[in-house]
Request: fold
Amino acid sequence: MSSPEDRPTPRMRALKVTRGQIVARGLTNRCANCGEPTLFQPGMHFRINERCANCGLKFDRGDGFFLGPFVINYTVTAACFIVPALLLSVFDVIGRIATFVAVGGCAFVIPILLYRRSWSWWLMAYFYFLPEKLPKNHSDLREDQEE
Reply:
């Protein structure tokens, strides 16, 4: 006879959507739950769907959730483009005017180019640490708990 301590907890049970799948889907701008490319409305670069058209996963998880993609976008832009340009200027590799133009251009263009990616990366990070929040994994846990 097994004791309550021997029974697997919900966190110990196998997930239908693994963390590896979540990362792969996040890197390819796909729904973390079903893997379909449904994050954004067709033809609308800056409009994220409220829910996945295929499985119904809610993408915008509530007040303030949009700040995650904003922080990712800002961090990548600053760390990968603006700081290196400023360092090149400080060490006289490029001139001050070139630095000003490069930093200004990067600060405007890079966030636009990374908008979709930053949403996808944010959802990837969120569900990587909370995989049980995915409907496929959540329903699996509920079925196991009812046994």
